[in-house]
Amino acid sequence: MSTFKRTRISGASFSILPLLLTSSFVFAEDTTTELEEVIVTATRTAQTVDDALASVTVLTQDDIKKQQATSLQELLRARAGFHLVNNGGAGKKTSLFLRGTNSDHVLVIIDGIKINTATDGAAPLSIIPLELVERIEIVRGPRTSLYGSDAIGGVIQIFTKKSKAGEAAKPTVSIKTGSHNTKGISAGISGGFDKGWYSVNLKREKTDGYNACTGSSTFVVTPGGFPGAGCFTEEPDDDSYDNRSASFSAGYQLTDHTK
User: Fold this and answer.
1) Cα(216)–Cα(224) distance, integer angstroms
2) Chain-centre distance of CA 123, in angstroms?
3) Closest by alpha carbon to 178, among 143, 207, 213, 140?
4) Euclidean distance between the first and final Cα of the chain, in Å?
5) What is the DSSP code (8-state) at residue 222?
6) pTM, whole model, 2 decimals?
7) Which helix (H) or strand (E) is 127 found in, with range?
8) Cα–Cα distance, 96 to 103 (Å, whole number)
9) Which of 62, 130, 32 is nearest to 90 (CA)?
10) How far is Cα 56 from Cα 53, in angstroms, rounded to an integer?
11) Could you give the CA distance from residue 41 to residue 146 in angstroms, rounded to a whole number?
12) Nearest C-alpha neighbor of 39 from the set 58, 55, 54
């Protein structure tokens, strides 16, 4: 009697084992599908990065977080073909040179609107809050046939953060501090309702700065400065900076093809 029972249990064990192996194999299958990155700047029409003939770089929120950049200039400085020159400390004019072209030959667009100034043709990169940036598309090379004479060196299109219609409100807060009594705070909220969406952001940043013109106004060596260093002037004062900004955007889906 005992031998008969042991035989039945042993048979049941071998019949269950293939089922367990089969089940573990099924659950291990990966059904994740990677979607290709879609851009609109290269040809002003939607296409994937692989289909674009131009040299294109896309910076997403993940890229911005990984680099830990504190400003838009710092984020772009690490990209291939870029050379940035900052005339002083925070808030001072920043010139961007792409592939050796002049700073006024790079077109910068924010949500489809050109921001290059009418005075020197360059974009005021130093006053664009990085906290508002959702993604950036960079197209290197001439795009004058699509964007005009400002796009000889390339085009940089910045997309700001937006919520989707019906999405719950999402508050964001960021605080930073640094040397030279540098302090900054940014707060915002974005969300959606029915067929619309909105985004509000407030920012304050200030710093005591440093003296960017330490040097000599002549070619004579002076204590604490090199000949002709700084701004060829003697201005013993710190270049402070205080920026207060606010932004608001909203949209509504009128039809399936109109926003």
Assistant:
1) 9
2) 16
3) 207
4) 80
5) B
6) 0.71
7) none
8) 5
9) 130
10) 8
11) 10
12) 58
- Contact between 140 and 188 under an 8 Å Cβ cutoff? The reply is no
Would you write out the chain's pLDDT as a tens digit for each of its 259 residues?
A: 444 444 444 444 444 444 444 444 444 455 555 556 787 777 767 777 777 778 899 999 899 889 988 889 889 988 989 999 887 777 778 889 998 898 889 999 998 899 998 888 888 888 888 888 989 999 999 988 889 888 999 999 999 888 877 788 889 898 988 888 989 999 999 898 888 989 899 999 998 887 777 655 555 555 555 555 556 666 667 778 888 888 888 888 888 878 7
Which of 242, 241, 96 is closest to 158 using CA atoms? 96
User: CA 70 to CA 79: how far, in whole Å?
Assistant: 15
Place of tokens 């977080």: 65
Radius of gyration of the chain (CA): 28
| DSSP 8-state secondary structure symbol assigned to residue 132 | G
Please name each of the domains of the chain with its CATH number: 38-160 (2.170.130.10), 170-252 (no CATH)
Q: Which two tokens stand for residue 85?
A: 């020159």
The 3-state DSSP class for residue 11 equals helix
Cβ proximity of 128 and 110 under 8 Å: yes
